[in-house]
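User: Can you predict the 3D structure for this chain?
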Amino acid sequence: MLMFMSWPTRVAVIIDLVGSRRQRDRAWLHRTFVTALAQVDAMVPGEQPLAPTVGDEAQARYHSVNDALRATLLLRLVLPEGLDCRAGIGVGEVQDLGPGVAGLLQDGPGWWAARDAINEAKARELVKDRTLRTWYLLADEAEPGSEVPSDAVVQALLLTRDEIVSSMQERSRRLLLGVLQGVSQADLALQEGISASAVSQNLRRSGAYAVLHAHDRLDGRGVASSVAPEPGGEEEGD
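Assistant: Here is the predicted structure, written as structure tokens:
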């Protein structure tokens, strides 16, 4: 008699590096990628940590969509200048198949939704949404509740978020990363050698505040006081 099991619904994430084949120093690329994955794991612990699998790919699993969204944003920000990544986020049932030669093997609708999502991100990036790096899909078998946002809501956030982040200069990326890490604007100002008001102005002009607030709203939180814009101050360039 066949037994049908219900696998747990999880948020699966698949990552790959953009344009990695153009990098000649493959050893440096791998070390840099692994270091970035570990940095993100320390900031947003997952149910299954971010870990490399095959080629220039990595995968992880999270309990919440918002954790997956924050982790994929952070990974783009911690990678050094010249490196970027794309991500597919899928929600649905996921089954662990056990360890394989290239990491933990997974299966199930949630994992395949993540695979379809990263393929969609790449296809859109090549055709019309050139700044897009992340996509999100619910598996057909998943039954989204109030805690699982719809495809349309998250995809709208991602189209906007990735456009903003892809357009950022390096200082703006560092400042956004610092705020996400909980660094005060005063400390960020010291690190950058600019005034605290210039930090606030940079965050506002670059769209960083919009990204931060959109994530907080999706997570059901209001605008955090730690990222509230500071009025006044002189203008500073990026």
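The beta strands are 9-17, 48-52, 57-62, 85-93, 95-100, 103-107, 134-138. Residues 1-6, 231-238 have pLDDT under 50 and may be disordered.
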